[in-house]
Amino acid sequence: MGEVAMDVSLLAGEGASALVGLMVVDGWTAVRERVARFFSRGGGDAGEVERVEAELEEARQDLVDAGEDREIAEDVEAAWRLRFRRALREHPEAAGELRALLDELAPERSRTRSGDTYNSVSGTVHGGLVVQGRDFGTTTIGLPRSAPRGDGGGGEGDGRGWSGS
Known about the structure:
This protein is mainly alpha-helical. The protein is built from 6 helices and no strands. Helices cover 55% and strands 0% of the residues. The radius of gyration is 21 Å and the shape is globular.
């Protein structure tokens, strides 16, 4: 049961993250319509679809008005994550539908199934390392414990990297 709850939570988070990202790109109207149909469970009630579309549009306008205010974006994402979680809890059969919708609307996310990016920087670094992103999980700067030491390689965490082959 815990694994199912975790899957719902992860899928809800993935849905909210993708939705917020798609709110500010071209093609938003089509995304809004598809997501509204998902939340109205098939779109049988036109009034419900229109109500959800209006809520989505209001959230999008909040993002646009916020500009670079990351806190607003996080709030909007959290609200829709909760909404996705509730929908999936009430309609567990909708998980497959949401997965298919995410794969269609944000296909780049389906490559890693989570939208995660993994980078490894090796060699000599001059002037320091620049790290840019939004949410960071496990971040290692310096030599990983399992990395071989090459000639002139720096010690773990000294920022010089290693000169392996």
